Amino acid sequence: MIDLTNRSFNKELLDADNIPFDDIIQNMKELNTVNTLLGGHAITISGIKNFLPINSNTISICEIGCGGGDNLQAIAAYFKEQKIKTIFIGIDIKQECIHFAKRQYPSLPATWFTSDYAKVELPDKPTIIFSSLFCHHFNETELIEMLQWMKRNCSNGFFINDLHRHPLAYYSIKFITALFSRSYLVKNDGPLSVARGFKKDEWKKLLSAAGIKDYSIQWKWAFRYLIVCKNGKGENV
Question: Does residue 197 surpass a pLDDT of 50?
Answer without folding.
Answer: yes
